Amino acid sequence: MVKKLVFKDEMEMASFLGLSAFDVAIAKEKGRISRLLRTARLKANVTQRDLATLVGSSPSAIARLEAGDNVSVSLEYLLKVATALEVPVLIRSTTLIA
């Protein structure tokens, strides 16, 4: 029998996984960006294949980006995808950890 782990909050889970509060904040932001790009692609009625062709990538790379599975994505790649989808990009310094 497999025991299910239950955590009282995300920071307890992060601590169990050895993640810092900064790691958690970055993961959340990456997830937000991934959802934003996927929503923009769907709204524009563009397939992952078509978007990949526009940015010189592969459909699987677009799928990984949208799923947040890319461990490391270059700023250039994000800008290519955002530009192809006509998503405005604003980079700002912000406090990720309260």
Task: Give an overview of the whole structure.
The protein has about 100 residues and is mainly α. About 60% of the residues lie in helices and about 0% in strands. The protein is built from five helices and no strands. Helix 3 (about 50-55) packs across helix 4 (about 60-65) and helix 3 crosses helix 5. The protein is globular and about 45 Å long. The N and C termini lie far apart (about 40 Å). The model has no long low-confidence stretch (mean pLDDT about 85).
Characterize the quaternary organization of these chains: single chain
- How many helix segments? 5
End-to-end C-alpha gap? 39 Å
* Percent range of helical residues: 55-70%
Q: What's the order of the H and E elements? A: HHHHH
Mean pLDDT: 87
User: What share of residues are in beta strands?
Assistant: under 5%
Which secondary-structure class do the elements indicate?
A: mainly alpha
Poorly predicted parts: none
| Biggest pleated-sheet summary | none
Overall morphology: globular
Tally of strands: 0
Q: What does the secondary structure layout of this molecule look like, with pairings?
A:
Elements: H1 10-17, H2 21-43, H3 48-55, H4 59-67, H5 75-84
In short, what is this structure?
With 98 residues, the protein is mainly alpha-helical. The protein has helices at residues 10-17, 21-43, 48-55, 59-67, 75-84.
